[in-house]
Amino acid sequence: MTDNKERLLRRAIELAAEARAGGNPPFGSLLADAEGRVLAEERNTTLTDADISAHPELKLARWAARELDPATAAATTMYTSCQPCPMCAGAIQRSGLGRVVFALSGEQLVALKPGGDFPDVPQEGPALYEEARVPVEGYY
């Protein structure tokens, strides 16, 4: 890892500490361009915003999708204090960001949490294919 990457990852960890000091879960992220310039920073605000989706990675992915053209987004790197959760990973993928560099892995995070990870929610499907495909067919 280069000195610049370490500097950016350390800043993401600082943002996580700021989130915790502000009464939120300890997660922070930033988005940098190809030259390592910080384009945007975010902290977790799930508690203070009363919004379970207010993860910093999701907020940055949404910002990038609104503010950056596809080529610029593809040249960015997100530096984050922890590996993105599945919700955030999906948003990052859809926003077209170039890559992610994280400090803690999801597995390491779960090991640090007294209650472990969130329980799986049972899912059922697919069902009603002929009906469900009608509004989707031809959209893409």
UniProtKB/TrEMBL annotation:
<dbReference type="Pfam" id="PF00383">
    <property type="entry name" value="dCMP_cyt_deam_1"/>
</dbReference>
<dbReference type="InterPro" id="IPR016193">
    <property type="entry name" value="Cytidine_deaminase-like"/>
</dbReference>
<feature type="domain" description="CMP/dCMP-type deaminase">
    <location>
        <begin position="3"/>
        <end position="120"/>
    </location>
</feature>
<dbReference type="InterPro" id="IPR002125">
    <property type="entry name" value="CMP_dCMP_dom"/>
</dbReference>
<dbReference type="GO" id="GO:0003824">
    <property type="term" value="F:catalytic activity"/>
</dbReference>
<protein>
    <submittedName>
        <fullName>tRNA(Arg) A34 adenosine deaminase TadA</fullName>
    </submittedName>
</protein>
